[in-house]
Design a protein that fits this description.
Length: 88
Amino acid sequence: MSIDDRDRYETFQAVKRAHEDELMRKANVVGVGVGVRQRHSALTQELAIVVFVRRKVPQDQLAPDDVIPATIEGVPVDVQEVGELKAQ
């Protein structure tokens, strides 16, 4: 990982930490991290804040406070469906 990549990752981590509690309060959200964006179930090379949800719901079926933004502080956000998480 280059210095620029490391700095970018650290920026994404800082934005995630600053907004994680707010994101976790949204309906259906089970986790938040920094990772690789998915498009049509395929991984891309694009780094993003990843918001993990039990299931994806059309935006028009969500309360306004539960809509996950496409970007936060200029950092892209990706919503990924993971189902129910269970402690092992």
